[in-house]
């Protein structure tokens, strides 16, 4: 999988962004990030400014989506 296969999700408590599979992003909340974290908001692309370009992207999501 590539980072373009993912949407950007955000943990509302910490503000950290996580990668969520695009194929599940249209399902109801909460979503499961690829690292297993629960995500309350999905907005934008993981490879965009709200994902990897954010101030606090999840290092585990980054590792999984770029390997």
Notable characteristics:
5 strands; three-stranded antiparallel beta sheet; alpha+beta; 12% helix
Strand order, largest beta sheet: 2-1-5
Biggest β-sheet: count, sense, barrel? 3 strands, antiparallel
Number of helical segments with 4 or more residues? 1
Q: What share of the residues does DSSP label as strand, in percent?
A: 25-35%
Low-confidence stretches: none
What order do the helices and strands follow?
EEEEEH
Envelope shape:
globular
| DSSP E strands, number | 5
Helicity, as a percent range: 10-25%
Structural class, from secondary structure content?
alpha+beta
User: What value does the Rg take, in angstroms?
Assistant: 10 Å
N- and C-termini, Cα separation: 8 Å
Average pLDDT: 93
Produce a short descriptive summary.
The chain is an alpha+beta fold. The protein is built from one helix and five strands; from the N terminus they run βββββα.
Give your account of this protein's structure.
The protein has 67 residues and is α+β, with helices and mostly antiparallel strands. It has one helix and five strands. A three-stranded antiparallel β-sheet has the order 2-1-5. It is globular and about 25 Å long. The model has no long low-confidence stretch (mean pLDDT 93).
